[in-house]
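[User] Could I get a sequence and structure tokens?

[Assistant]
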Amino acid sequence: MNFIRLDELNVINAYATDFFTSIHSPFLTKFFLVLTDIGNPVHIALYCLVLVMVMWLHKKYEHIIQFCVTIGVSAMVAYVTKILVQLPRPPGGVIQETGYSFASAHAMIAVVFCVLVIYAYKNHFQNIWGRRCFVFLLSLACVCVGLSRVYLGVHYMTDVLAGALIGLIIACISIVMHERHWRNN
């Protein structure tokens, strides 16, 4: 039983590619290059290190372990998914990437990172507007990182959507496991 047909996915990918091709500009290219660079593995490692230090200062020790393990699992899932699916990258991207296209590791790691930060700091903001702004900005960052990959022509839209969905599933499983562990201890 096929829930999603390949031709439907191709329509989504073609529409997204056509749209991003139609809005190409030097400014947007620079903007999306900066956004995609946020997902560079070296930068991700630095963000994780900074976040771990911030969590340590806020005495969120249990979240440090959860965060490190979940980011590691996400990286492994992204790698294994690319090896299993072996979908070539779109031709003619603005930048050249190596490896396979599906699923977007940038989108997956960005979603996991942001969801876990939101979870760890959900009660940190006393002001409801501060909390909403925090969630909105982190969510916007995830969307922008994912869209940057399609704009730059290194991923299909379905790669990004799948990466974000897998990342969300991993983050949710992590949160459920974290809640069960700390409730039982």
